[in-house]
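Sequence, please.
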């Protein structure tokens, strides 16, 4: 099962994410911030206030939004930033 093991805010709606499979990359979440739970995260300050939940290996925000590691890895792969860590 894939987990996020580290993450940090880069800029805008981008996060640098390291995964349990030994890969890391920059995931641009700009295209994902729609719908009731994610609209709050269009505020850059709120977006940057994410947390890593080490128990479940996901990125989450105080408003209840979260993203699965698989989605984050796919975003990094699509952006061409996924590399071995």
């Amino acid at each position: 099962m894939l987990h996020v093991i580290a993450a940090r805010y880069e800029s805008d709606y981008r996060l640098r994410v390291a995964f349990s499979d030994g890969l890391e990359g920059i995931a641009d979440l700009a295209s994902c911030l729609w719908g009731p739970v994610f609209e709050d995260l269009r505020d850059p300050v709120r977006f940057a206030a994410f947390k890593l939940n080490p128990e479940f290996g996901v990125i989450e925000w105080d408003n209840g939004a979260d993203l699965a590691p698989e989605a984050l890895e796919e975003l990094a792969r699509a952006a061409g930033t996924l590399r071995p860590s």
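The beta strands are 4-11, 14-19, 23-28, 51-53, 58-60, 66-67, 83-84.
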